[in-house]
Write a structure and sequence with these properties.
Elements lengths: L3 H14 L3 E4 L4 E5 L6 H16 L15 E2 L3 E3 L4 E6 L50 E2 L9 E2 L4 E2 L3 E5 L4 H13 L7 E12 L4 E10 L7 E9 L7 H31 L7 H35 L10 H23 L1 H4 L8 H8 L1 H26 L9 H12 L5 H7 L3 H37 L7 H33 L7 E2 H10 L4 H11 L6 E2 L1 H32 L5 H17 L5 H45 L2 H17 L1
Antiparallel strand pairs: 1-2, 3-4, 4-10, 5-9, 5-10, 6-9, 7-8, 10-11, 11-12, 13-14
Helix pairs in contact: 2-3, 4-5, 5-6, 8-12, 9-10, 9-12, 11-12, 13-14, 13-16, 14-15, 18-19
Membrane topology: Multi-pass membrane protein
GO biological process, one term: detection of mechanical stimulus
Family: Belongs to the polycystin family.
């Protein structure tokens, strides 16, 4: 919707209509530019010396005539004619003080629709509008359904007025300007003259609606302003434009989806949904998006309807593109606000990190203190604004109205000020106003504001230091790394297990592995029948249900290659993690890597000889344990045998012999 070419287009048009300076005919020196025009005579000189050659590019730089007329700067097609329009107020639209009624017979108020003059004047004075042949001297009401008001520096001007369209050549234009000049077209009641035209640049597919406003305030003089609206009304022309159309359709689908999602959330959470600022932001973005969607469709339909009707008109008529260009410009503003809010919404998705919540936590904690401080600040601030407006508003431009006084005081806080103008306005109050304002507002209040935020920030930072993140981005990476490593480890262990099964399955050591031997060993390790059959059949090339020495070697080599490939993947995964890890975690990761490497070396598979040696040791340990268990059983049997005589002795009343017998039994058991 917006591109740098729009800026270049407006700058090119400004270089033609607002940047050139007039020539002072009294001393043949450089005069004012468009923005510096201040007299009624300057208007006529501007229209003759600047506007006329700007509207009509009729010759090349070598004075040869161009082949086609109606272009500005050779590239920008003028759509229709240039229109000039005057807004007047009638006499006696204001009241003259009784003391001056005898001397002053005329009174022209500032412009307002209620004071507008619609009577014919000049050559058509005292004639009906239907009998007047001069369009510029008879009032023409607005015929546009979509008429827009024009806001100037002095007043707001609606559609209609004393209107005239210029011819299609510089000669005709100069003649018509001279007729207006000789007919005293601009009079005491004139309050504004508006010059409107629209151009189209086919190279960039851009329209630009231009309006030059000349205001003649009730105090006299001249105030100028200009409006350049470069917009893209024909949206879908090039291939990239249709790609944008596809993106817009996708955008509509997303908005519909998120609308349904938000409706379901509102239905579930009721009013609690609106307690979250981010939820409210989602609703605002969705509503603005729907406004953009509706206007985009409406604009496309209206452009197709109005553009055909406007371009079918005669080139001597004015084609009003102001409505389309104005609302397209507003549409761009709405889109920019939507995108701005969408960027703010990014905080919603990074709020799980405690570092990213410092801004929101700080603002939330100091909100109450700032609210109380703001009341005190604005009391003093608006007091100074009112004082500046009432004291210096007559002489200093930056204090000419209360709102401008507020802007000026904000600029002083930022270090932008004009001390000399205040001193010239009043040599005592000016410096006193400036110094006291800087002291109380800048040195005291502003530093109090910063101190509140700074103290709250320190407090929030201390709290967040001991707070655990809800979820770290690094955690997500580590989880993916861990899962990948686990999968590779499982594959490696499985291959190692199959290699061990291959080494142990040949029980008779005849270097011929029969299927029953393979199946028995693999079954003991928990493999399924289908998997056992699949692995065996893959390497049983002759189909005799026996793996000879070559077939076993092929199986072993394949398992070894797969194991090496997995080890390389694990090493690459470790290197990738190490490269993406923060510097302060590298040492810790190195220690973990060394530990994991040592564990991996310890868990390395053993050879057949080592396995047999370990099996013998295990058998020896089992024999020793069995011998110990036999001894324990013997001790238990003797204890049972001695238990019966002890009971008989106790019954006959010989405790001492019983005690001696028990001691002897214990000593014998201890010796055994």
């Amino acid at each position: 919707m917006v591109s740098s070419n729009m800026f270049l287009l407006t700058q090119a048009l400004k270089s033609v209509f607002t940047d050139p300076q007039l020539t002072d005919e009294t001393n043949n020196k450089t005069g004012p530019a468009f923005t510096d025009l201040d007299r009624m005579e300057d208007f006529w000189q501007y229209m003759t010396d600047v506007a006329s050659p700007g509207f009509y590019t009729e010759q090349w730089y070598n004075t040869e005539n161009v082949s086609e007329y109606g272009y500005i700067l050779f590239e920008n097609r003028l759509l229709g004619a240039v229109q000039i329009r005057q807004k007047k107020v009638r006499n006696n639209s204001c009241l003259v003080a009784d003391d001056f009624k005898q001397e002053i017979k005329f009174c022209y108020n500032s412009y307002a629709p209620a004071y507008e003059d619609t009577d014919t004047f000049g050559p058509c004075e005292n004639l009906n509008a239907s009998n007047c042949t001069y369009d510029a001297f008879k009032y023409t009401p607005s015929t546009s359904w979509f008429g827009l008001s024009t806001t100037g520096q002095v007043s707001v001007y609606d559609q209609g007025g004393f209107t005239m369209t210029f011819g299609s050549s510089s000669t005709v234009f100069a003649t018509e300007i001279d007729q207006l000049y000789q007919g005293l077209w601009i009079q005491r009641g004139t309050r504004a003259v508006l010059v409107d035209f629209t151009i189209y640049n086919a190279n960039l597919n851009l329209f630009c609606q231009v309006q030059l406003l000349f205001e003649f305030p009730a105090v006299g003089g001249l105030i100028t302003s200009s409006t350049f609206r470069a917009v893209k009304l024909l949206r879908y022309v090039q291939t990239f434009d249709y790609f944008v159309l596809g993106c817009e359709i996708l955008f509509v689908i997303f908005i519909i989806y998120y609308t349904i999602e938000e409706i379901l959330e509102i239905r579930n959470f009721k009013l609690a949904y609106f307690k979250s600022i981010m939820n409210c932001l989602d609703i605002i973005i969705i509503l603005l998006s729907y406004v953009c969607i509706v206007f985009n469709i409406y604009r496309q339909v209206q452009v197709n309807l109005l553009l055909d009707a406007l371009l079918q008109n005669d080139q001597t008529q004015y084609n009003d593109f102001s409505f389309l260009c104005y609302w397209q410009y507003q549409f761009n503003i709405i889109i920019s606000i939507t995108i701005f809010l969408a960027w703010i919404k990014v905080f919603k998705y990074i709020s799980f990190n405690k570092t990213m919540t410092q801004l929101s936590e700080t603002l939330a904690k100091c909100a109450r203190d700032i609210s109380g401080f703001a009341i005190m600040f604005f009391i003093i601030f608006f007091a100074y604004a009112q004082l500046g407006y009432l004291t210096f508003g007559i002489q200093v431009e930056s204090f000419r109205a209360f709102q401008y006084s507020v802007y000026t005081l904000f600029l002083i806080i930022l270090g932008i000020f004009d001390f000399q103008s205040l001193q010239q306005a009043h040599r005592v109050l000016g410096p006193l106003f400036f110094l006291t304002y800087v002291f109380f507002v800048f040195f005291v209040l502003l530093n109090m504001f910063l101190a509140i935020i700074n103290d709250t920030y320190v407090e929030v930072k201390a709290e967040l230091r001991n707070k655990k993140n809800e979820f770290e981005i690094s955690d997500f990476v580590k989880q993916g790394y861990t899962k990948m490593r686990e999968r590779l480890t499982v594959k490696r262990d499985r291959i190692a297990d199959i290699r061990r099964a291959l080494a142990l399955a040949d029980l008779n050591r005849d270097k011929r592995l029969e299927f029953d031997e393979w199946r028995t060993e693999m079954k003991s390790r928990g493999y399924a029948e289908e998997e056992i059959e699949t692995i065996f059949a893959k390497y049983d090339l002759n189909g005799d249900r026996v793996l000879d020495e070559n077939e076993q070697r092929a199986l072993s080599n394949d398992l070894l290659r797969q194991n090496d490939a997995i080890l390389r993947e694990i090493d690459e995964l470790n290197m990738s993690k190490k490269n993406n890890m923060p510097v302060d975690n590298v040492d810790e990761d190195n220690e973990r890597s060394k530990s994991a490497a040592s564990q991996r070396l310890q868990a390395h598979e053993v050879s057949v000889e080592e396995y047999n040696e370990l099996a013998k040791r295990l058998d020896t340990m089992e024999t020793s344990v069995g011998f110990v268990l036999t001894k324990i059983d013997n001790v238990a049997s003797k204890l049972d045998a001695y238990e019966k005589p002890k009971n008989k002795t106790n019954k006959k009343g010989r405790p001492s012999d019983s005690r001696n017998t028990t001691d002897e039994m214990n000593m014998e058991s201890f010796d055994e």
